[in-house]
Automatic annotation (TrEMBL):
Involved in peroxisomal proliferation. Promotes peroxisomal duplication, aggregation or elongation without fission. It is a multi-pass membrane protein. This is Peroxisomal membrane protein 11-4. One of its GO terms (biological process) is peroxisome fission.
């Protein structure tokens, strides 16, 4: 019990930990609002307000986050030329997303012209989509490479203790990368809903489930081991 409490404290001390918790609030309230809108309009209104407040608070909390892309590229540029190129494109898209998200937040709270909100939302979501696509491609390349290395280790006639440890590391990395792919695909649906509104991506259930998949995959990845 104490170990779980300690991990929760560590998780919530992280910027990403808080973001995933508030994102859960945001998309649960979106789904509840949709579910009770016809039968309990007063309750639906409260959950709509919670959704909006959670969304705006997440944008405020992400102030300056676009700079993290520089740090990621500096610390882990990629092991091959193709992965370095994918890392640059993915992080560039994410930086555009976070940078223009600041202006979207300011437009929605009335600090700057509210008519700019739609334009800022489009630019932010476009950068976000580009980033997610390249992140997904890079993760699939690394997943394939991990499988190749694991098969090679398993085919060895005399597996050493180091081989066993290496296989465990590869499996652990695979789970984390699959969680990243799930989160990025889910967020891509949300971004497409902003770029090119359509009945499927913009449906409340699609957005709600996508938001929760992203939040909970991120929760798993950030939870202390």
């Amino acid at each position: 019990m104490n170990d779980s409490v300690d991990k929760l404290v560590i998780f919530l001390a992280k910027r990403d930990g808080i973001d995933k918790l508030v994102k859960t609030f945001q998309y649960v309230s979106k789904l509840v609002n949709w579910h009770v809108e016809a039968s309990h309009p007063a309750t639906a209104k409260r959950f709509k307000q919670w959704e909006v407040a959670a969304g705006l608070s997440r944008k405020a909390f992400r102030t300056g986050r676009f700079l993290t892309g520089f740090n990621v590229l500096r610390r882990n540029p990629g092991s091959t030329l193709s992965l370095r190129l994918l890392a640059v494109l993915a992080n560039a898209g994410e930086m555009v997303y976070f940078f223009f998200d600041h202006f979207l937040w300011l437009a929605r709270i009335g600090t700057i012209d509210a008519s700019l909100a739609r334009r800022m939302s489009f630019i932010s979501a476009f950068g976000e989509s580009v980033g997610y696509i390249f992140f997904i491609i890079a993760d699939f390349i690394l997943l394939r490479e991990g499988l190749r290395v694991e098969r090679k280790m398993r085919s060895s006639e005399e597996k050493t203790e180091e081989d066993e440890k290496g296989i465990r590391r590869i499996r652990s990395d695979r789970v984390m990368r699959l969680m990243a792919v799930a989160a990025n695909v889910a967020d891509l649906f949300i971004a497409v809903a902003d770029i090119e509104p359509n009945p499927f991506c913009n449906h409340t259930v699609t957005l709600g489930i996508s938001g929760l998949v992203s939040a909970w995959a991120g929760w798993y990845r950030n939870w202390p081991s």
